[in-house]
Design a protein that fits this description.
Pfam families (chain B): BPD_transp_1
Number of helices of chain B: 11
Largest sheet of chain B: none
Order of helices and strands of chain A: HEEHEEHHHHHHHHHHH
Function (chain B): Required for the activity of the bacterial periplasmic transport system of putrescine and spermidine.
Strand content of chain A: under 5%
Number of domains of chain A: 1
Bound molecules: adenosine-5'-diphosphate, magnesium ion
Protein name (chain B): Spermidine/putrescine transport system permease protein PotC
InterPro entries (chain B): Bact_Polyamine_Transport, MetI-like, MetI-like_sf
Distance between the termini of chain A: 22 Å
CATH architecture of chain A: Orthogonal Bundle
Oligomer: heterotrimer
CATH superfamily of chain A: MetI-like
Keywords (chain B): Cell inner membrane, Cell membrane, Membrane, Transmembrane, Transmembrane helix, Transport
Shape of chain B: globular
Number of helices of chain A: 13
Chains: A mainly alpha (about 300), B mainly alpha (about 270), C alpha+beta (about 350)
Structural class of chain B: mainly alpha
Helix content of chain A: 55-70%
Chain lengths: ~300, ~270, ~350
């Protein structure tokens, strides 16, 4: 998605050049007014003062960021020390997302490779099978996973029936469950771009490597992975970014100890305990993180093109 | 000796991948036909929870939510597709113009901003301009984030259509509007359908943004399901899930067929 | 001279389709050996069996006496120059050339030095740090060659390596390849569908068709003494006529031509009866009384030659080539000419 569609230098022989403006007005209006403007407004809100029943008072302050990063004691009069609560939540989100990305890659790459090396007919079937979950409602998939792994759920029951465990595994409300949920949610996002890259891969390169005395696994490391790297990076971005801001998996599968950014932000806009400026500030910090990731990605891409 | 395409263990990984992706869905589908009131014990095959969805105590709520979901998805996908068609023609047939790369970034922006951030920002915006949250706000938000999903397949298709067809039509005395309606639009159709289907499913799927901008008393299917699930997973939820699953499978099949037809008319 | 590669009754099937029907041939050490045949005849398949990318279904391949079945490609002392080069796109030219040495565990300094020498040999030292995408087709081709030669294989396999180049470059590369082969002393197995390429470079040529070897021999052998219709027709231009053979004795056949004239000619057939005879169009002369009589239908100007498209009095199409010299008397279209067969113009084929 990101940068996938570079506008081709096509010509002017079709007469659309004169009406580019009118054709683009709806896009500019919709995204400009209903996304760009809101995000800018959100940035402003993060510097406002909170009002108690939700909403804001138009007094500018750094209170939200102060609350996020610093602890000034219960009554706000002690010397500030670093507040770890929210940093910890962000840190947990980052490593949960990174781990989910890694696991998706470990499962997704072999799957994508396997599919791309099937004969045309079976390949279409495999591709269809991995695409279906991508189209299934994420909420439903997450609920289904919860149903499967809950304490008295089918997974535990069958493991116990097989005699592999004696007591049900307490999976729900753990980091592991959240991890499983993220992995399960975004796995198709890894498989599809990697598949697209492997499908374009020229297998003669592997043959050339084998011909030059490289073993299978050395070929994978030295030739295949570097060549399909753009697909792998795209897959990693597509898994990492939504994992970072995920709400459903941590909310439905996790507990208090597995709080992630998404839930933290969500909570600030729920009823009277909410704190809109703080929520806006947390959202700003999340967006900054994502922008950093995307910038690094764009850099890596342009560097790759320059080579 | 095995060829260079073969790696030991990759088949196992692919099978594991499918098992992981499907096990929860299959289990829930199976249990949706459970005749028992308890979700833990199997009480024989039955359609009762499907009947319950349509006639049970929660039926009015789910029906209203389904109606909202479907009408919003149709309206949002149609509008977003129309916007995306215009945008793709400008971006791909408009030559070079000032602000092109900014527009390109703008179109893709909804894909870059994390959903939860979009949700927060949209809520703040609507509340700041004093717009009451409800059907209309959901629809506006959905149109906005559906635009790039509609745009991607449409632009990809358009990029593959050579300009010579339209030029030939213009050469044969067609006006720009006629060349568009009679030549370009039919050729773009597979991309437009793909874009529409994708936007439709994305709108139908959305939970996070909808949950923020829906306002009190307004529900779509995902928010209604989420509300129920918070009280525990009941069998009727599994029946609804299974029906939505069936709709998704139908959509993948449709988009697959659209692509197949599209490939036949590729230039 | 020792045998580098011995291919014994190799059969290769893909499912129900058979790509090689019992191919046997033996290639000497230091030989420039060419597999020549039309597209789809199984050349690549045979090469891939030697390199180890495909298993043979039946038969065996011996490399310096050792059966190499079951040996993975990375364990065979054979290197390939791929048709589309298959240069590693993410590695520099030097890294590409050094790759085989790296895999063999040669130290960085040694392999860099050797790869550098290989690049010198193919005149690409100035491009060592470029990526393959930054080279022209001819340069990429030479990198592929240097890469395959760097590990000093015992046998080098080349699959239509010149087919992607333009004519001038192709002609220059023919000479360069032949020189390289003589310098290095490595056995080359060269695949091509271009007969001119095969004729100019090879020590010996195997002509293949439909998964079978039709004839093996030097360039002169297969041009002057083709064994069957396929070889006669595929190599150069020829006229194939159906004839009746009266008698065969001591490798010489007595043949009655269309029109009734009787000649003797060398033969690949062993039994009398209906056979085909190949008559090379440049070995004919127009004379007062000849072996064949034809009506000229069209004269085509080819620069060095003139081609006469004619028809025999018995109805068969017949081509004649005359050198474009000032002395040539060119018959006008519509005129009837008598044709004299020169020594070695005709050869009786086995089928
Ligand atoms: N992997 C394969 N599967 C099925 N048939 C193949 C395969 N590779 C080659 N063939 C068939 O084997 C025959 C010989 O092919 P090839 O060796 O590539 O011919 P050449 O290199 O002489 O053009 C062809 O008919 C081709 O269709
Ligand atoms: Mg070939």
């Amino acid at each position: 998605m990101a940068g996938g569609m570079t506008p081709a230098p096509q010509g002017n022989g079709t007469g659309y050049r004169a009406i580019v403006g009118p054709l683009l007005i709806p896009t500019w209006v919709m995204i400009g007014i209903f996304l760009v403007l809101p995000v800018l407004l959100m940035a402003v809100y993060s510097f406002l003062t909170k009002e108690f029943r939700g909403g804001v008072v138009w007094d500018f302050t750094l209170a939200a960021y102060d609350q996020f990063f610093l602890n000034r004691g219960l009554f706000g009069d002690e010397p500030p020390v670093i507040e770890w609560t929210y940093i910890t939540i962000f840190w947990r989100s980052i490593w949960q997302a990174a781990l989910a990305t890694l696991i998706c890659l470990i499962v997704g790459f072999p799957t994508a490779w396997f599919i791309a090396t099937r004969p045309a007919r079976t390949r279409a079937v495999w591709l269809f099978l991995v695409t279906v979950p991508y189209w299934v409602n994420l909420l439903i998939r997450t609920v289904s996973l919860k149903f499967l792994i809950r304490e008295n759920g089918p997974l535990n029951e069958s493991l116990m029936a097989l005699g592999l465990i004696t007591d049900p595994l307490p999976l729900v409300n753990t980091n592991l469950a959240v991890q499983l949920g993220l992995f399960y949610s975004y796995l198709p996002f890894m498989v599809l771009p990697v598949y697209a890259a492997v499908e374009r891969y020229n297998f003669a390169l592997s043959e050339a490597a084998a011909d030059l005395y490289a073993s299978r696994w050395v070929t994978l490391r030295e030739i295949v992975l570097p060549v399909v790297k753009p697909g792998i990076i795209a897959g990693c971005i597509l898994v990492f970014v939504p994992s970072l801001g995920a709400f459903l998996a941590p909310d439905l599968l996790g507990g208090a100890k597995t709080f992630m950014i998404g839930s933290l932000i969500d909570e600030q806009f729920r009823g009277s305990q909410g704190n809109w400026p703080f929520g806006a500030a947390a959202a700003m910090i999340l967006m900054t993180l994502v922008l950093i990731v995307l910038t690094v990605y764009a850099r890596a891409q342009t560097k790759g093109d320059a080579r | 000796m095995k060829g260079v395409r073969h790696y030991p263990g990759f088949l196992a990984m692919a099978v594991a991948c499918l098992v992981i992706l499907y096990a929860p869905l299959i289990v829930v589908t199976g249990y949706s036909f459970n005749g028992s009131t308890s979700i833990t014990t199997w009480g024989g095959f039955s359609w009762r929870w499907y009947a319950d969805v349509f006639t049970g105590p929660d039926a009015p709520r789910f029906k209203a939510a389904a109606w909202n979901s479907i009408t919003i998805a149709i309206l949002a996908a149609t509008t977003a597709t129309a916007i995306a068609v215009a945008a793709s023609v400008a971006m791909i047939r408009g030559g070079r113009f000032k602000g092109k790369s900014a527009t390109f970034a703008l179109i893709n922006l909804p894909l870059m901003v994390p959903e939860i951030v979009t949700a927060v920002a949209t809520l703040i915006f609507f509340s700041a301009i004093g717009l009451t949250t409800g059907y209309m706000t959901i629809l506006i938000a959905h149109i906005t984030f559906c635009i790039p999903f509609a745009y991607l397949p449409i632009a990809a298709r358009l990029q593959g259509i050579e300009e010579t067809y339209e030029q030939a039509a213009r050469d044969l005395y067609a006006t720009r509007a006629q060349a568009f309606r009679l030549i370009l639009l039919p050729l773009m159709m597979p991309g437009i359908l793909s874009g529409f289907l994708l936007a439709f499913i994305i709108s139908l799927d959305d939970f996070i943004i909808t949950n923020f901008v829906k306002g009190a008393g307004m529900e779509t299917l995902p928010t209604a399901i989420f509300g129920s699930v918070k009280q525990g997973i009941k069998p009727n939820i599994m029946a609804i899930s299974t029906m939505m699953l069936a709709v998704s499978v139908l959509f993948v099949t449709l988009s697959y067929l659209v692509n197949r037809i599209g490939q036949r008319t590729r230039s | 001279m020792s045998t580098a590669i011995d291919i014994r009754s190799v059969v290769k099937r893909y499912g129900t389709a058979t790509a090689l029907h019992g191919v046997s041939l033996s290639i000497a050490d230091n030989e420039f050996f060419t597999l020549l045949g039309p597209s789809g005849c199984g050349k690549t398949t045979l090469l891939r069996c030697i390199a180890g990318f495909e298993d043979v279904t039946e038969g065996e391949i011996r490399l310096f006496g050792q059966n190499i079945a079951g040996l993975d490609p990375n364990h065979r002392p054979v290197n390939t120059v791929f048709q589309q080069y298959a240069l590693f796109p993410h590695m520099s030219v030097l890294e590409n050339v050094a790759f085989g040495l790296k895999m063999k565990g040669v130290s960085l300094s040694d392999r860099t030095a050797r790869a550098g020498r290989m690049l010198e040999m193919v005149h690409l030292s100035a491009f060592a740090d470029r990526l393959p995408a930054q080279l022209s087709g001819g340069q990429q081709q030479r990198v592929a060659l240097a890469r395959a030669l760097a590990p000093e294989p015992k046998v080098l396999l080349l699959d239509e390596p010149l087919s992607a180049l333009d004519l001038k470059l192709r002609q220059a590369m023919r000479v360069e390849l032949k020189t390289l082969q003589e310098q290095t002393g490595i056995t080359f197995i060269f695949v091509t569908h271009d007969q001119e390429e095969a004729l100019t470079m090879s020590d010996r040529i195997a002509v293949m068709s439909q998964g079978r070897v039709q004839q093996i021999g030097t360039a002169r052998d297969i041009y002057e003494a083709p064994v069957n219709r396929f070889v006669a027709d595929f190599i150069g231009e020829t006229n194939l006529l159906e004839v009746t053979v009266d008698r065969i004795e001591g490798g010489i056949a007595r043949v009655t031509l269309p029109g009734g004239h009787t000649i003797t000619c060398p033969t690949a057939a062993t039994t009398p009866g209906k056979h085909h005879i190949s008559i090379r169009p440049e070995r004919l002369s127009i004379s007062a009384a000849g072996d064949l009589t034809a009506t000229v239908e069209r004269v085509v100007y080819l620069g060095t030659d003139l081609q006469l498209l004619a028809r025999l009095t018995t109805g068969e199409e017949f081509h004649i080539r005359l050198q474009n010299s000032a002395r040539a008397q060119v018959p006008a279209p519509g005129s009837t000419v008598a044709l004299h067969l020169e020594e070695g113009a005709a050869r009786l084929l086995a089928d």
